[in-house]
Task: inverse folding
């Protein structure tokens, strides 16, 4: 049985590894491994424990397990049957003996313990009940192997480390069968002797007595398993005294106490000894024992600690020990005051008595004052110390230590040029184990190093301000041109040290009449278009009124020559008014140029749109606000500005043949090889569209774009990251949403509206612009080594409505019917549309949805088409534009009317958007007699259904004829063929030109073979979102 890991074993002399487990095979019986409180082998290294593994047979022995498992294996291999009970097994903390550490987990301890037992004979016990059940089961096994005990006896000697608590022993019959005659017993010479023991089947006796572990012997070891008994034997049969059976011998151990004793110092390190002897004692309750132990404590790693380990926790009577520091042996008792600072009295604090040191300074710059005399008196008004300050303004009372719980008064002899001060009352106390010193009721705290305690007295100097007439001027220049730059702001700081953190300081409000001290100037706001330089420039104003320039190590450096160029630094000049002028010459590097590229695009055909005029106006600085204005106004006395007035500037621009906005010359013409459109950083611009071309939409003053260029901080930050991440859309406010809000009529499922839309806003370096943005770049722009570009596209499209009016061919009265509409979304005519002779529907990519309802998205059979129903003889298709081809046929005529084979074909080409008047191609065609999918075009006047165009709108009048009326129409057409001979030449001329000259529908002259009207259809899903 075991309640922990093996803490002692014979040293292994040979070992072997089997199945991943290390077994000892031979052992040195004269040498022990005894880690005491752990299975892990360890050794002392100074005051610290460290692991102590060793190697045998090429294997590393880290703990006692190799020996324990090896001995068990040897026994089992010899035929022994080993039973093992693990009692409340826990983890092994290892050599540190610190429960927060883990050498072996609880599960690892259990696994190794189970390897001791024969197969199947290991059990865990986590409670006293588990142990009782196990022992009973083992007893049953033993009893099952023996018959009755007759006149038996037990010899039970007490272990050498134990004492009987008293002489009381109890024997009790506890089995199922009652034992009426209990055996006899006596304690003789530390041995319990039981005789006349007679036990039969199902009978059992229990023997109880109490012992104490002797913890006060000199050789007692804590956390060590001591056998409670010696060899305990049972003689089952008195007639056979040589037949003896051994009882299992229990063991017990006592936990130890590990104590840490600490010496703390509230003192100067130079007065501390190298070691101190502490005298440790112990007691139970209030009773001190005669035991004591002296330990030496030294400083190690910044702390004074010593340790006592494995001290008994309880006395030999079971009472708990309390350990404490009783005394200490050290030197320099006159310097220290000794106190105990913890309730357990394991920490001693040495508190140094105050040694008084004074530092006399001027109120300005804390300049030390020498030769000032002081006198120190005690509470009885007796002088206990006196002296004068040295060159550093210091006075140390060398041989004086201030006693605690005493009051002193410090007196100053007045010094010329300074006002007298004092006296000061000084008191010393120990409060909450901490030394305390007050001067006139104000507490002075010790610093972390417990340095000598100093009282700093500040006496105001009468500074002659007239000696310090000076001013600072900033001369700001461009590094590439020596140009004087404006709009820079510099901060001036007064420092206490060259290494001061400027973020913790506030800039001064003036650069004139600076008093003695150390100063630094740094650029706060750079001129627009120039990189900010964070370089610090240091100078010092001395008490004699002179000024010197300093480097970053506070060393004096020469001033610049007045005519020196290309270098940052100071120039010092004497003014006529005896004022010193310190000028900082400071250069800034320019940022790369910033350009604007805007492309005007025909959105219907994604092609350049030329001739559109814009105006670009600079509105001012983007980040200009009241705070920055106030800052500049406050700094007018600090910074010399080379100001230039910035006014709103407007330039005229026009899209060229490639759609790119280009500068116009004085005559309003596009400049050849014009310079790129240059922008200032940190500025707001307004781009206004001033005119439209042809029939493209014009939304007046709504068509305005606001462009905000990045500031220099943004550019510098992104360049330092080597990754420009400024988004074009963040720099641009577009009119797109406002233009959409002007839409009066929503398009149907077939159609879009005319809009002006912004596409593809970008901010990029010149080298990384996409090829589309580069394709027409002005040569001077492409030759730049480095530049940034803000670019975007402005797209416009053209739409119109188209009306079909249905009439009775005889009386021109409105007639309702249904047409079938089929269309091509983007049609490219193989030749001039007006000259096409035929159109094969099988070659077209027809598309579309049912548009009988504006909310319908029902797919249709594109070969059949969508249904158009007239109301009061009219049907208007709204929002039609360029590029669509519409084929409108009447599959079923109204009842009583002749069927028609005539088809309306409408198309608006690219050029018609540039006309002054809305126009659309309208042609009539018949289905071929041999191929109904082949449309054959003819003259409009050759179709009886054609009744002309519409007044004041784009459209066509299309007629149906009743069955009885069709003969009259045919007679009228035949009569028309008879003409006057004088008109034959004209007819021939009209006939030859019928396929090329089509008057615009709705114009004053309507005739020829066609009409012209714009008609474009798009799906509703593309409304307001066309790319």
Result:
């Amino acid at each position: 049985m075991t309640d922990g890991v093996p803490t002692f074993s014979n040293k292994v002399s040979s070992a072997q590894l089997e199945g991943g487990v290390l077994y000892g095979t031979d052992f040195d019986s004269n040498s022990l491994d005894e880690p005491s409180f752990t299975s892990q082998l360890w050794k002392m290294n100074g005051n610290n424990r460290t692991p102590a593994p060793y190697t045998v047979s090429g294997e590393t022995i880290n703990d006692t397990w190799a020996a324990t498992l090896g001995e068990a294996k040897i026994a089992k291999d010899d035929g022994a049957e080993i039973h093992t009970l693990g009692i409340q097994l826990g983890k092994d903390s290892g050599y540190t003996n610190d429960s927060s550490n883990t050498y072996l987990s609880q599960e690892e301890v259990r696994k190794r313990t189970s390897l001791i037992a024969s197969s199947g004979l290991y059990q865990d016990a986590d409670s006293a009940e588990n142990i009782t059940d196990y022992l009973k089961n083992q007893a049953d096994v033993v009893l099952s192997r023996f018959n009755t005990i007759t006149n038996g006896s037990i010899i039970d000697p007490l272990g050498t480390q134990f004492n009987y608590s008293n002489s009381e022993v109890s024997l009790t019959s506890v089995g199922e069968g009652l034992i009426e005659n209990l055996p006899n017993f006596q304690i003789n010479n530390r041995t319990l002797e039981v005789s006349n023991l007679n036990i039969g089947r199902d009978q059992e006796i229990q023997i109880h007595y109490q012992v104490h572990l002797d913890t006060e012997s000199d050789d007692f070891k804590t956390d060590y398993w001591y056998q409670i008994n010696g060899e305990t034997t049972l003689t089952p049969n008195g007639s056979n005294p040589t037949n003896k059976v051994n009882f299992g011998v229990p063991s017990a151990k006592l936990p130890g106490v590990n104590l840490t004793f600490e010496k703390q110092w509230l003192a100067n390190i130079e007065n501390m000894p190298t070691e101190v002897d502490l005298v440790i004692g112990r007691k139970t309750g209030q009773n001190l024992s005669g035991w004591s132990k002296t330990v030496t404590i030294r400083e190690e790693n910044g702390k004074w600690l010593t340790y006592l380990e494995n001290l008994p926790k309880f006395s030999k009577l079971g009472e708990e020990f309390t350990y404490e520091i009783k005394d200490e042996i050290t030197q320099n008792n006159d310097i220290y005051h000794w106190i105990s600072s913890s309730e357990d009295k394991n920490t001693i604090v040495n508190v140094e008595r105050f040694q008084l040191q004074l530092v006399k300074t001027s109120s300005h710059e804390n300049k030390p004052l020498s030769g000032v005399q002081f006198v120190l008196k005690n509470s009885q008004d007796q002088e206990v110390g006196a002296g004068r300050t040295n060159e550093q303004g210091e006075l140390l009372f060398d041989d004086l230590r201030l006693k605690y719980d005493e009051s002193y008064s410090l007196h100053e002899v007045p010094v010329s040029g300074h006002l007298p001060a004092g006296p000061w009352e000084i008191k010393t106390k120990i409060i909450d184990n901490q030394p305390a010193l007050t001067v006139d009721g104000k507490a002075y705290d010790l610093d972390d190093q417990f340095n000598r305690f100093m009282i700093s007295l500040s006496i105001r100097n009468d500074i002659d301000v007239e000696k310090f007439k000076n001013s600072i001027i900033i001369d700001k220049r461009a590094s590439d041109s020596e140009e004087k730059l404006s709009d820079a702001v510099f901060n001036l700081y007064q420092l206490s040290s060259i290494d001061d953190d400027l973020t913790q300081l506030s800039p001064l409000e003036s650069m004139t009449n600076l008093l003695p001290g150390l100063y630094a100037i740094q650029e706060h706001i750079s001129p627009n278009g120039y990189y900010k330089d964070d370089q610090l420039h240091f100078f010092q104003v001395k008490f004699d009124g002179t000024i010197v320039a300093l480097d970053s190590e506070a060393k004096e450096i020469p001033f610049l020559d007045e005519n020196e160029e290309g270098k940052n630094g100071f120039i010092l000049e004497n003014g006529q008014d005896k004022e010193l002028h310190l000028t900082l010459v400071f250069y800034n590097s320019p940022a790369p140029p910033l350009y604007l590229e805007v492309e005007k695009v025909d959105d219907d055909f994604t092609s350049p749109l030329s001739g559109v005029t814009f105006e670009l106006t600079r509105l001012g600085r983007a980040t200009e606000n009241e705070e920055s204005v106030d800052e500049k106004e406050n700094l007018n006395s600090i910074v010399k500005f080379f100001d230039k007035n910035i006014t709103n500037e407007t330039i005229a621009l026009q899209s060229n043949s490639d759609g790119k906005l280009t500068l116009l010359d004085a005559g309003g013409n596009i400049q050849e090889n014009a310079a790129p459109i240059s922008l200032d950083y940190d500025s707001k611009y307004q781009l206004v569209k001033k005119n439209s071309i042809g029939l493209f939409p014009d939304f007046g003053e709504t068509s305005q774009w606001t462009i905000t260029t990045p500031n220099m901080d943004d550019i510098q930050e992104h360049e330092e990251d080597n990754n420009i991440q400024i988004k074009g859309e963040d720099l641009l406010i577009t009119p797109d949403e406002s233009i959409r809000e002007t839409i009066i009529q929503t398009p149907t499922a077939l159609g879009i509206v005319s809009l002006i839309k912004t596409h593809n806003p970008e901010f990029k370096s010149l080298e990384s612009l996409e090829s589309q943005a580069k394709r027409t770049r002005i040569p001077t722009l492409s030759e730049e080594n480095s530049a940034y570009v803000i670019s975007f596209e402005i797209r416009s499209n053209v739409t119109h409505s188209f009306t079909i009016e249905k009439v009775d061919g005889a009386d021109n009265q409105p007639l309702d019917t249904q047409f079938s509409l089929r269309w091509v979304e983007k049609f490219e005519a193989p030749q001039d549309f007006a000259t096409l002779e035929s159109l094969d529907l099988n070659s077209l990519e027809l598309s579309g949805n049912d548009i009988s309802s504006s909310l319908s998205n029902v797919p249709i059979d594109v070969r059949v088409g969508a249904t158009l129903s007239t109301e009061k003889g009219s049907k208007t298709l709204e929002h039609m534009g360029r590029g669509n081809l519409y084929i409108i046929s009447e599959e079923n005529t109204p009842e009583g009317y002749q069927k028609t084979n005539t088809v309306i074909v409408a198309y608006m080409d690219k050029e018609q958007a540039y006309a002054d008047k809305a126009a659309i191609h309208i042609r009539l065609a018949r289905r071929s007699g041999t191929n109904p999918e082949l449309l054959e075009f003819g003259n409009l006047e050759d179709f009886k259904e054609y009744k002309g165009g519409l007044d004041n709108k784009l459209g066509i009048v299309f007629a149906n004829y009743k069955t009885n009326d069709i003969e009259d129409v045919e007679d009228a057409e035949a009569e028309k063929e008879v003409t006057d001979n004088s008109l034959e030449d004209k007819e021939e001329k009209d006939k030859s030109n019928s396929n090329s000259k089509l008057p615009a529908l709705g114009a004053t002259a309507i005739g020829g073979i066609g009409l012209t009207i714009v008609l474009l259809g798009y799906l509703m899903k593309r409304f307001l979102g066309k790319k």
Observations:
- Residues 150-254 form a domain with the Immunoglobulin-like fold (CATH 2.60.40.2110).
- Residues 128-145 form the longest helix (18 residues).
